[in-house]
Write a structure and sequence with these properties.
single chain; 9 helices; alpha+beta; nine-stranded antiparallel sheet; Multidrug-efflux Transporter 1 Regulator Bmrr, Chain A
């Protein structure tokens, strides 16, 4: 309950400072947590990145003020746009027309209302998880950059998997996997290298390589020593995995003292489960301050 209150306090802070520079670290401090954790939580719970939400709220207010007679350039500068041209591009992406048309008769303007998080109590089964402190390990695979804007990553990453499967690349990588390693020879998806606004990130589709494998054609990444929350989920569909991700952020994090540490998120199917069982690894620490 306290976490929901802190989230809403941060939302109120955002809406009260839309015409000022909004630093994610300051916003997160209103929720008494880290910027990284707050932005990850916000994205999963709201289905929109924090930066997208701020842009949408600013452009909603900007449209209202232009309709009321405010100048376009003055409004652009007020809401943080350096030029009228950049403001016009953003305005058109949200509203579908240029700012100068906002006062035209019959024009329909989109309004993105302030968010408010509510406590939801469900009768679902307790989540299965372990806390594991692990030393550094190595992953190797194919890496591509994805965008979280408008949920684009949910559409593009499955296509990336299909592309690598159809080309035979996944099969070739599996021949180089460590069958006795942490991930039991599985294909791993890893989200890493998040941008400052958490809207772009790199995604590795790969393996934990065998020590003797030739990795010349693969990107090799060393994952540092971290403490991981490891969740076991069931279901062979993308929807089943998304439900588990939602439950982790919507139920597990608010119910514990852990916060998301800065590091990659991992997901893989368990060997021998027929694709029905999977694990999600999230780096955590328990330095969450209480309010």
């Amino acid at each position: 309950m306290n976490w929901i209150k802190r989230l809403n306090q941060a939302l109120r802070y955002i809406d009260g400072h839309l015409a000022e520079r909004l630093d994610p670290r300051v916003i997160a401090s209103e929720a008494n947590t880290s910027s990284f954790h707050f932005q990850k939580m916000f994205h999963i719970l709201a289905d929109i990145t924090l930066a997208e939400y701020i842009r949408s709220r600013r452009l909603t207010m900007a449209a209202r003020e232009i309709v009321d007679g405010a100048g376009i350039l003055d409004t652009a500068l007020k809401y943080g746009y350096e030029t009228q041209a950049s403001f016009t591009r953003a305005f058109k992406r949200l509203h579908g027309f240029a700012p100068g048309m906002a006062r035209d008769p019959g024009v329909v303007i989109k309004a993105y209302p302030p968010l408010s998080f509510q406590l939801s109590i469900r009768g679902e089964s307790p989540m299965e998880y372990e806390i594991r402190a692990m030393g550094e390990f190595t992953l190797a695979g194919r890496v591509r950059e994805f965008s979280a804007k408008n949920g684009q990553n949910y559409r593009d990453i499955p296509l990336f998997w299909k592309e690598q499967e159809d080309s035979g690349e996944i099969g070739r990588m599996l021949e180089k996997a460590d069958r006795a390693g942490l991930f039991r020879g599985a294909v791993i998806g890893a989200c890493l290298g998040f941008s400052g606004e958490m809207e772009e990130f790199n995604y590795l589709l790969g393996i934990e390589p065998d020590a003797e494998a030739d990795l010349q054609e693969l990107k090799v990444i060393t994952i540092p020593a971290l403490t991981w929350a490891v969740f076991t989920g069931r279901g062979s569909t993308a929807e089943a995995r998304q439900r588990t991700w939602k439950a982790i952020y919507g139920e597990w994090f608010p119910a514990t003292d852990y916060i998301h540490d800065e590091g990659p998120e991992l997901e893989f199917s368990l060997s021998g489960s027929g694709g029905d069982q999977f694990e999600i690894w999230i780096p955590v620490n328990n330095n969450q301050r209480s309010v």
